[in-house]
Amino acid sequence: MLRIHFTDADLGRTRVAAAPDPLWEICASLHRFQTRHGRWAYADWYRTARAQVHATGFSRTLRTLLLPLVPRAAYFPDFLTPPEAAEGLDAGLETILSTPPRRVLEELDILDRTSGAPAWGARLAEPDMRKELVQAMRAYYNAVIAPHHDRIQARIEAERHARARGVVDHGTEGILQNLGPALQWRRPVLHTVYPEERILHLDGRGLLLIPSYFCWGNPVTFGDTALKPVMIYALNHEPHPSALPEDFGTGAPLAALLGRTRTTVFRAATVGATTGELAHAAGVSASSASQHATALRDAGLIVSHRDAQSVLHTLTPLGAALLRANTPTRR
Predict the structure, then answer these.
(1) 137 contacts 93 by C-beta, under 8 angstroms
(2) Structural contact between residues 178 and 169, judged by C-beta atoms closer than 8 angstroms
(3) Which of 1.10.10.10, 1.10.443.10, 1.20.120.1780, 1.10.3720.10 is the CATH number of 254-325?
(4) What's the CA gap between 58 and 64, in Å, rounded?
(5) Structure pTM?
(6) Cβ count near 273 (within 10 Å)
């Protein structure tokens, strides 16, 4: 069990990351190769990722370099997920390269004591070996994560909309409510399932919540409580068709392309809307709005995210691009 203790100052400094963190997603996706738990939620990704890994001859590097460093266990080295990655993959990898050798060795020693470190682990204190690691992480990201960026970003944006609505409805603490079945907010402590007993006092530093596409099950945080507090948590995955149409045009007016009612439903999802709100905007029943939302979701134009008792619908990058292309520009 992990217990995160908040003060009033911490609640005011708690926020949700604006984009997926590339290094946390690398680590979380490596866990997906190590277990069948939740495999149904990543079936398409897992199949294509394995094919890409084999096609690029990356299997050995994955098996001998990356997976041993990021075991699906209570701990993996904190230096692999620096805060600078919020600025992008390049910034994160540069920070890994510049990590002091002493810190690398200390964290590898913790890994060795908790779940076992690879025999070559100590060599990561050397610049050349760390450069090899960074090159492998970049190649892995480009091969199996970057191709899915739009879908991942759409899910993160939907989650941010859900958290924002929570704040509107319940105040600042609304961010911490309904984060998923593994998390329970009982003021002033956030309780969550964890591989080991741990207590984290934020002490006025606040908490950065990072929704992760590839995280599954319990959240993840830094092993070192002195680091700036973050918590990676899983999205609420639901099976849905993910193929995007190859010939979906954007030149025709939306009403002619989608139909008047479906266009209204589509536009209503611009800033995030529940099924009931879609129905109200289009003047149709909730069941009819749900059918229109399903059609738009199957076409890759919206993404749906369950939040407590309601379902929130938001645009995907493709949907946003289609809407922009059909919105007159005003001088």
Answers:
(1) yes
(2) no
(3) 1.10.10.10
(4) 10
(5) 0.74
(6) 25
